[in-house]
Amino acid sequence: MDNKNIGLSECPGCGVNLPDLGLRKSERFNASGECWEMFMKLSGYIAQGYDEEFIQQMSIDTYEAQHAGGTTKNIAGAFGLIGLYLSLEKGFSGKEVQRAHMDLANRSKEWPRFGPSPSKWKMTVKNVVDAGPKKSKKMIHLWAKATWKEWEFEKERIIGLMNKVSPGLEKYIKNGKKGAT
């Protein structure tokens, strides 16, 4: 028996090892209960103040991308990657990404499967939370960039998926309209 793993819970999605609190595995994501609890703690940090950038959306998309596969619904994995692509490569704000997600969700109920994630992550939600509330925004950006770098091989698939479901989506969202035609 490996003594260094006694008392730890490994997340099946991101691979982070956290103290085993006996929490149930997340039903929504391919995540341990302890990892999901860590994400809820991060969400609490973000909710403490008004954020014009709406960084919460980037944190959600990053968490979804790191926990794709397993029990995670197809839409969550797809939207996580779409959100990272739109925010990091196209400069969308969190609100614009959220509008894109709403437009896409209204147009399709069928989403391809992504995952499991391509690697054990060097940066996880734990790193963001451990940095503390004052550094959370900067750390979320670093976490998102590190996650997108590992998933970037799916970029053409993501673009094709968006164009198939909602042609012209990027242009319409960026122009402040509700959705593509």
Tell me what you see in this structure.
This protein is mainly alpha-helical and 181 residues long. It has one domain. Helices cover 54% and strands 3% of the residues. A two-stranded antiparallel sheet has the order 1-2. β1 and β2 (17-19) form a beta hairpin. α1 (33-47) runs antiparallel to α2, α2 (55-66) crosses α6 (136-151) and α3 crosses α7. The longest helix has 17 residues, at 74-90. The radius of gyration is 16 Å and the shape is globular. The termini are far apart.
What percentage of residues falls in helices of 4 or more residues? 40-55%
State the shape. Answer: globular
- Span between termini: 59 Å
How much β-strand is present in the residues? under 5%
**Structure summary, number of beta strands:** 2
Q: What is the count of distinct domains?
A: 1
Query: What's the alpha carbon Rg, rounded to whole Å?
Result: 16 Å
Main pleated-sheet profile: 2 strands, antiparallel
Q: What is the quaternary state of this protein?
A: single chain
Summarize the helix and strand pattern as letters. Answer: EEHHHHHHHH
Strand order in the sheet with the most strands: 1-2
On the 0 to 100 scale, the average pLDDT is 87
Derived structural class: mainly alpha
User: Runs with pLDDT <50, length 5+?
Assistant: 177-181
Number of helical segments with 4 or more residues: 8
